[in-house]
Amino acid sequence: VEYGGRWFDHPDFVAAVTARARDTLAAAPAAAELVFTAHSIPCAMAETSPYVQELETSCRLVAAALGHPFTLAYQSRSGGPREPWLGPDVNEHLRARAAAGVRHVVVVPIGFVCDHVEVLYDLDVEARATAAAIGLGFSRAATVNDHPAFIRMLADVVRAGVETS
């Protein structure tokens, strides 16, 4: 098995996420806050990998393309309750943002490339219910799924991997 190169800052990945977020922001109230989400991992694992730095870079690039400030939260924590995982948890984060006066959030699952249970349930059911319970407006951007720019990026990564092997 060979792994392709990293693509957290690939222009086509950034373009695909930006397009999905822009579509959702356009339908949201003007003061909506942009909240990126990604899968939480154990803090010990995060300390030995570029995971957080790459996520933050992706978020900064997309937010810059949108001209919009952002926050980052984590979701889908699993594992033992005594082991610390990256936070804030998206539901805790939504509560904190509402307490700070935010009225609407646009959640962008930047750490997930396709719709699956961790997006469809953790965000569309659980996080949406958390937001509703505290009077926080909630919109979720689509994942990149089959966005043409994302497909181009995948082809670029595969092509580059084949050319270097």
List the secondary-structure elements in sequence, H or E.
HEHHEHEHHEH
Q: Calculate the mean pLDDT score and round it.
A: 96
Give the overall form. globular
CATH fold category name: Rossmann fold
Number of domains: 1
Give me the side-by-side strand order of the main sheet.
Answer: 2-1-3-4
Low-confidence runs: none
- Judging by the overall fold, what is the CATH architecture? 3-Layer(aba) Sandwich
- What's the number of extended β-strand segments? 4
Q: What is the CATH first-level class name?
A: Alpha Beta
Features:
single chain; 165 residues; alpha/beta; Rossmann fold; 4-stranded parallel β-sheet; 7 helices; 4 strands; 13% strand
Describe the structure in your own words.
By secondary structure, the protein is of the alpha/beta class. It has a single domain (11-164), classed as Rossmann fold (3-Layer(aba) Sandwich). The protein is 48% helix and 13% strand. The protein has a four-stranded parallel β-sheet, sandwiched between helices. Helix 1 (11-27) runs antiparallel to helix 7. The termini are close together. The model has no long low-confidence stretch (mean pLDDT 96).
